[in-house]
Amino acid sequence: MKKEFEVIAKIIKNNKRVLDIGCGDGTLMEHLKINQQNDVRGLEPKKDLVQKCIAKGLPVIEGDAEKELIQFPEKSFDYVVLSQTLQAFLRPEEVLNQLLRIGRQTIISIPNFGYWKVRIHLLFKGTMPVTKNLPNEWYNTPNLHMCTILDFVNFCKNKNIKIDKSMCLTNEKISEITVKNIKYKNIFSQLGIFLVE
Amino acid sequence: MNSELKNIKKLIVSNSLELDCGKIIKNFPVAYETYGVLNQNKNNAILAFHALTGDQFCTNINPITKREGWWTTAVGPGKAIDTNKYFVICANVMGGCMGSYGPKEINPETNKLFGTTFPVITIKDMVNCQKYLIDYLGIKKLLAVIGGSMGGMQVLQFASLYPDMSYSAIPIACSASHSAQNIALNELGRQAIMADPNWKKENSNPDKGLAVARMAAHITYLSKKGLQEKFGRKLQDRKSLKFSFDADFQIESYLRYQGATFVDRFDANSYLYITRAMDYFDLEKQFNGNLSLAFKNTKSKFCVISFSSDWLYPTIENKEIVIALNACGANVGFVEINSDKGHDSFLLNVPEFLKTVSEFLNSTYNEIKK
Q1: Over pLDDT 90: what percentage of chain A?
Q2: B206 in the same domain as B142
Q3: Contact A63/A72 with Cβ under 8 angstroms?
Q4: Is residue B318 within 8 angstroms of chain A, CB to CB?
């Protein structure tokens, strides 16, 4: 299991209801179900991945978060997880509002566009950045709304979204984001992970 | 044919059952078949519900019609519903014509065939009957209830009536309430039967009417693309059009064949009663317009499956079931299988579908064995 999932799993308490949006092949769900006795549900747009999850006995629904989230009742989950997908939605703000409505708490991770390699790529090469975390070219990237760690934190501030926890990840190393170090973390982190409500 | 009918397995239910229409029945037959072996813990039983024109012989050679069972693609040793592992039970629905309480049976009160004096029955009545069979077989909790089309409706009704009697539920290509389009199509079939002058005559069958009903229905089980690819405008055993109303086109000949063979194995009155039961099915209405209340107490794990080219029970109607299940916090998975084969996909060799069923059952069985 990748480091990011380890961080997310650590945030989630045992015996809670969790909705994993864009759950992929169900790796995180399976971990939460088996090791933390969480009652898990998943939503995934790709048929083959949904089938993989069903084969593992995971309750996953085929569907697109931008259309499907309205069906879940308010506060029907303790946690809603959205891993590295917010930037790929057509209307990320609306999706985020849905997540906050469905979950008591929401865990969101974003690839950080403020990472130094991304900045250098654009500054010196003058072309859209292609990195390990952002492997696509501008014409085939699924990412429509890239943002930085700072952007996301500012956004939450403006929308009165409470951030309960902010972590970042660089080369598999986890650290906490604080008010003091955020400018620094915004340059040196590849990924931001936030627990919001 | 009738002598063979005597040899089929039948449970005579001595309890009295009040039907939805208000009539109380007693000592009625439920004809059934089983495949595989019930294990010692009695936790490997799967109840498969058949669709409109199916019967209890879901696999192997049907001893009455001498044709392959309707779900031979899915049920059998080593297949998705593996009879080496599971004990598969399938009953002829109430209203059917393969030995269960239906219009083709003798009314004990009059000693005459029921025919159209048979009571109008519902999906709920069908399910209640089959519950007696499960009790009779000594099974406290099924591994799964599964079925496509009307079989799927029975799955939903069963899950709602008996929230803790099955570890899992697999409704396939179905709907929680029959749509106006589907009622319309069923009415077309019924009117074709009733328009046949033989329908009301004693000792004669409305074969023409029933065949037309089957032809019309058969079109709805396929998809436009599937039909086009299989038949296109291909001619039947001729090089050019005959300028007549013979079956010039292969599709015409195919449908005529479907109609003609159907009347040999199916009863026209059963067709009327069963289509009516489908039309009356409205699980949402049973719970005052809130479908999720139907599943409020369910302990079953659901796997809802639809097919991309099914326009009779389209994905959107299957999804309504998923939404209702999610709204009450039930354990539900859903997948739409890509297939050009229309509604009939659940009966045909559609590998992705069979794989999904097989793996879902397998994971459920492994979980309960722990």
Answers
A1: 94
A2: no
A3: no
A4: no
Among B273, B294, B317, identify where a domain stops: B273
B218-262: pLDDT as tens digits: 999 999 999 999 999 999 999 999 999 999 999 999 999 999 999
Q: What pLDDT does B2 receive?
A: 57
Q: Give the Cα separation of B359 and B337 in Å (integer).
A: 14
Answer whether residue B1 shows pLDDT above 80. no
Angstrom CA distances, B71 to B25, B59, B75, B88, B97, stand at: 31, 6, 6, 12, 18
The verdict on a CB contact (< 8 Å) between B334 and A63 is yes
For residue A151 the two structure tokens come to 């952007």
Contacts of B29 (CB under 8 A, 6+ apart): B10, B11, B12, B13, B99, B100, B101, B105
pLDDT for A16: 97
A positions 40-99 inside 8 Å of B (CB): 41, 47, 50-51, 53-63, 71-73, 76
Q: What is the pTM of this model?
A: 0.94
Q: B169: domain range?
A: 2-178+282-369
Q: Which pLDDT value is given to residue A71?
A: 87
**Cα B231 to chain centroid, rounded:** 27
Quick check: B131 and B32 in contact, CB under 8 A?
A: no
Query: Considering only alpha carbons, which residue of chain B is nearest residue A17?
Result: B329
CB contact under 8 A, B363 and A50: no
Burial B235-269 (b: 16+ CB within 10 A, else e): ebeeeeeeeeeebbbbbbbbbeebbeebbebbbbb
Dihedral sign for Cα B135, B137, B141, B147, please: negative
Q: Which residue of A has its CA nearest to B308?
A: A47
Of B33, B25, B27, the C-alpha closest to B7 is B33
Q: Search chain B and give the residue with CA nearest A73.
A: B327
B118 in the same domain as B44: yes
Residue pair B178/B281 in contact (Cβ under 8 Å)? The answer is: yes
Same domain, B158 and B208: no
What residues of A are in contact with residue B356 (Cβ under 8 Å)? 51, 54-55
- Nearest-angstrom CA–CA distance, B317 and B179: 9
Going by C-beta distance under 8 Å and a sequence separation of 6 or more, which residues neighbour residue B370? none
Which distant-in-sequence residues (6+ apart) come within 8 Å of B14 by Cβ? Answer: B26, B27
What domain count does chain B have? 2
Query: So where are chain A's domains?
Result: 3-112+144-196
**pLDDT cut 90: percent of chain B above it:** 96
CATH classification of A3-112+144-196, choosing from 3.40.50.300, 3.40.190.10, 3.40.50.150, 3.40.50.1820?
3.40.50.150
